[in-house]
């Protein structure tokens, strides 16, 4: 048992108010999940936190590859010399970003392609921490979430929000697939598990089971 368990720091970046997460433990190793930093100022905010905590960036992970979750991939990959890791089913989603980034107001977007693919059943390890990878398609075809069983916390991307769910009207999205992912992957976790979503405040599995209008 480590003296300090998993700690989660969140940053809200870019015009989509996307939640970027840094997960770290007493080893001082960390992973960055869904870096959405779109400006020099946002990049600096992320960098300052990592330096202030004395962290070593071990991995760069994407829950999925819509533009608001990947804007900072190039910055993180090149600054900290870590390869990008995504689920292979989201590669086409990632590759599409340069075709529309300028239209969304991000002409400066620089592409980074993955060097590793995440798979359900293969844990993500760093420092003293192991995260379970759960495959949760529906919002995006290759969406995954990262579950830390010991602390009962999950980085949930755009699957489940407080009183809402991810949109399914984007390419590769499917409503019934998303509902199935929530019911079979997230709602089978303990009610106390805290869900840290890609947008908005955190919630718990139990709260959403009881109050989410999309899952009544």
UniProtKB/TrEMBL annotation:
Transmembrane segments: none annotated. InterPro entries: MBL_Glyoxalase_II, Metallo-B-lactamas, RibonucZ/Hydroxyglut_hydro. Its cofactor is Zn(2+). SUPFAM superfamilies: Metallo-hydrolase/oxidoreductase. The keyword Protein transport does not apply. Coiled coil: none annotated. Pfam families: Lactamase_B. Keywords: Hydrolase, Metal-binding, Zinc. Residues 17-199 form the Metallo-beta-lactamase domain. Gene3D superfamilies: Ribonuclease Z/Hydroxyacylglutathione hydrolase-like. One of its GO terms (molecular function) is metal ion binding. This is Glyoxylase-like metal-dependent hydrolase (Beta-lactamase superfamily II). It comes from Rufibacter quisquiliarum.
């Amino acid at each position: 048992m480590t003296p300090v368990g998993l700690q989660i720091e969140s940053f809200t970046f870019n015009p989509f108010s996307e939640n970027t997460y840094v997960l770290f433990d007493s080893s001082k190793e960390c992973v960055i999940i869904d870096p959405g930093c779109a400006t020099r100022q946002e990049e600096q905010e992320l960098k300052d936190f990592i330096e202030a905590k004395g962290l070593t960036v071990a991995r760069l992970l994407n829950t999925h590859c819509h533009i608001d979750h990947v804007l900072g991939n190039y910055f993180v990959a090149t600054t900290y010399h870590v390869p990008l890791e995504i689920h292979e089913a989201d590669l086409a989603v990632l590759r599409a970003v340069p075709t529309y980034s300028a239209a969304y107001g991000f002409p400066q977007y620089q592409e980074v392609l993955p060097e590793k693919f995440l798979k359900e059943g293969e844990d993500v390890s760093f420092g003293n921490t192991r995260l379970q990878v759960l495959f949760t398609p529906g919002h995006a075809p290759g969406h995954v979430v990262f579950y830390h069983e010991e602390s009962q916390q999950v980085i949930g991307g755009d699957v489940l929000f407080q009183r809402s769910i991810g949109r399914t009207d984007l390419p590769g999205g499917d409503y019934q697939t998303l509902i199935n992912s929530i019911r079979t992957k997230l709602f089978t976790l303990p009610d106390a598990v805290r869900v840290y979503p890609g947008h908005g405040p955190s919630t718990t599995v139990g709260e959403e089971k009881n109050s989410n209008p999309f899952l009544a």
